[in-house]
Amino acid sequence: MKRGPKVSKEKTEKLFWDKVDKTPGLGPKGTCWEWTAGKNNGGYGHFAESVFSGKRKIWKAHRFSYFLERGSIPDGMLICHTCDNRSCCNPDHLWAGSAKDNSDDMFSKGRRNGWLKVTDDQALHIRQEYDDLPLSKSGKKKRGEVSRLANQYGVTNSLIVQIGKRRLRRIND
Ligand SMILES: [Zn+2]
User: Fold this and answer.
1) How far apart are CA 152 and CA 101, in angstroms?
2) Considering 73, 97, 121, which residue would you say is the last residue of a domain?
3) How many domains does the chain have?
4) Is the pTM of this model over 0.90?
């Protein structure tokens, strides 16, 4: 199999930054650098390279940005966003935290967003009930059923989904 010329680190960096839109005014702070290429289901950009890693590796784009800026990612650390914009690659908006830091951060943000009015106990119940909800033909939870749960707990549909999908309230698992 024919292999192309070895790609340099500089070239790889350029390829990466070519996919980032630094136009002022983006994101909640107006200073986000938006990833414009492929994203995964969670909304994080992804970027494949092999020069820095020594083997083909698919990075989350913001992690690669942090890596380029700092030269490394501390072992086992998550790279978190201060802007809550998952597709943002601005190194100034990124910080390395443990899984616990991240959950504390979500917790304090959750306090601002009001989802903490759901108690841990309720969250566990919501999670169970969500798992048991009937599915529509497309394989998704039926909207009416989600609304029913939301009304029952006095919260929004999206909060039910967030808790049901374990995006919130990972604690106490
Ligand atoms: Zn940002």
Assistant:
1) 32
2) 97
3) 2
4) no
pLDDT in tens, 53-67: 999 999 999 999 999
Give residue 35's domain range.
9-97
CATH code assigned at 85: 3.90.75
**Among 97, 129, 148, which residue terminates a domain?**
97
Cα–ligand 1 centroid distance for 90 (angstroms)? 6
Dump pLDDT digits (tens) for 96-140.
Answer: 988 777 777 776 666 555 566 677 777 788 888 888 888 888 888
Measured distance CA(123)–CA(100) in Å, rounded: 19
Q: For residue 46, tell me if it sits in a domain.
A: yes
Measured in Å, residue 43 CA sits from the centre of ligand 1 at 13
Ligand 1 centroid distance, CA of 164 (Å): 27
Alpha helices in 36-142 (DSSP H): 61-70, 99-113, 120-132
> Ligand 1 centre from 79 Cα, in Å?
12
The first and second tokens of residue 109, run together, are 């943000």
3-class secondary-structure state, position 161: helix
> 170: CA distance to ligand 1 center in Å?
24
Gap from CA of 13 to ligand 1 centroid (Å): 19
